[in-house]
Amino acid sequence: MSTDLDNFTGLSVVLTGINQKLLAPSVDPIGLPATFLDFIGPRLGQNVLSALLGQYASLLAEQQTPQQIGTAILMQNGQPATTQTAQAARAIMKLWLLGVWYQPYAQGAFPADEQTVVSAEAYTQSWAWSIAQAHPMGYSEFFFGYWNSAPPSLEDFTGVAANTQPGASS
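Above: the chain sequence. Below: its structure as tokens.
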């Protein structure tokens, strides 16, 4: 039986395309998945969050591929879905990538379009930095002078093999 945290992590892997071992490592001193799940619960509302995680769990139980799961959650009749669960899924993607919560709709005391940096760790560990092979200003885990060497490959950062063909998707 999967927990909400397991389903949230699995959904996050589908939405971001980032390897589960990197997104939610088994030894995780920072613990962003649990932090994010606790943070978004009241902002999405328990009904929407439960529906989204339930939809993911059902599609996974049907042995749908990550692409099929993402399409089912985010799309409707070939167009971006406008449901609250789809809006929530898009906000979760931005959360992982930027470390910032963009409130997708009004929920209780949280107005639509409110933006909140979840924590310093969420910002410094956000995936946009790794994908760009960069780091936030004033913060780096690299050694002094690292800029003198070629950066590690994108695959080293994200677990996703880089496209070897030139172009925007490489």
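The longest helix spans residues 46-61.
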